[in-house]
Amino acid sequence: MRTEPKLTRLDRVFARLDREPERPAHLDVPKMSRHRIVLFAATLAFYGAIVWAVVITSWLVRLDWQVMFFRPYQQWSEIHWFVDYYVVLGQRGPTAVMVAAWLGWRSWRQHTLRPLLALGVSLLLLNVTVGAAKYGMGRLGPHYATVIGSNEMWRGGDIFPSGHTANAVVTWGILAYMASTPRARRWLSAVSAVTSLGVGMATVYLGTHWLSDVLLGWAAGLLILLALPWFEPLIARSETRIFELRDRLRDRRSRPAALPAGPPPVVVTPLPVDREEVAARSPRTPVYLAPGPHTSRAERTPITPAGSRRPPQPERHPRGSASSARP
Fold first, then answer.
1. Model-level pTM?
2. Directed axis angle between helix 59-70 and helix 34-55, to 10°?
3. Burial of 191 (0-12, 13-18, 19+ CB in 10 A)
4. If you average pLDDT over residues 235-243, what whole number do you get?
5. Residue 11 Cα to chain centre, angstroms
């Protein structure tokens, strides 16, 4: 009796990957629904409220100073080494490389550039919006504060909002945004939220950011993720143009190399022949040699070149004849 081997879950996953699927048509591209618009408006209002609370030096600024004087990195110094490594999950370079590697593999498997293009658009929006807010408000960090109780705004700083927190929200949240099933989207959303929350609290623990910086960084990253569906038509057009350019390059490479242009060939036309004139010509009379007596080779006169040192030979007699008696 022949039994089939029992496949594990990992074997089924690799068997599914070996199918080399074409570009899937069932992927759910998020759209700017009414629910998403409400979330975007609420997050934008929260963003504005944080900025206004810091500008007017409200209770939020006083809370920032209380947390700074508490010095969490001294209160819980035993976890300092772990926080130093964990905060790397919010740095632009390492996180972008890791997420781009995963999305690039997905793009290759699914024959689509949408994951990589969506990551590029989100990082571009992150650089423009967060960078403009940082340098526009110019807030100093806790380690560089000058006046106790002040908001430290417009003093040449670049920490408001927190770039680590916003970057963590965008880079890890893009994985949930690109999920192909609702279940995967829910799980990845929870993981990205916990990761970005931990990165923000790590910066507060290390004293590199105020608490209000972290709150504004969360809002800034979430605004970018919520606004991505507005850029989906641009992503689709960019993907189409890139594929068209690739097809043109392939066609150009597959064509044979054209020969260099040279002068046109010269056509030689034969001269007309007058058949009557050719027929009127008399053929040449063949020349026949008169027959004559043939002598044997021995009877022929030897020919000696002029100036030759070879002595003349005596006349030879043909074979069979009697030779003359010697004296």
1. 0.70
2. 80
3. middle
4. 90
5. 30
